[in-house]
Amino acid sequence: MIASRVHAIVAAGLENPELLARWKQEPESLGAYGVDPSAFDLDAIWKFAGLSAKVKHNGLRFDLPLTFRFLSVCRLEIEVFGAYAAHKAKARTRYALTVEGRIVELVDFLRDWLDFDKREHELLWDVIRHETALAQLRKRTPVVKKSRAPHVVGEIMLYEMTCDPRVVGELLREKSFDPDRVQRCVVHLCYWNPGDPQDIRILELDELGYHLLSLVDGKRSLADFKRISKKLMSALNELGSVGVISLG
Amino acid sequence: MKYVTANSGAVAVGLAFGPIVPEFVSANPDLIDYVEIPFEQLRHSPEAGSIQETVPVILHCASMSVAGFVPPDDGTMKAIEREAERTRTPWIGEHLAFITADAIEEDQPTSLTYTVCPQMSEETVERVAINLATLQQYFNVPLILENSPQYFDVPGSSLSMVEFVSAVVERCDVGLLLDLTHFLISMLNTKRDPVSEIERLPLEKVVEVHISGLNVQSGIAWDDHALPAPPVVFDLFERVMARVRPKAVTLEYNWSPQFPESMLVRHIDRVHEIVRN
Question: Rounded to whole angstroms, how far apart are CA atoms A243 and A236?
Answer without folding.
Answer: 11
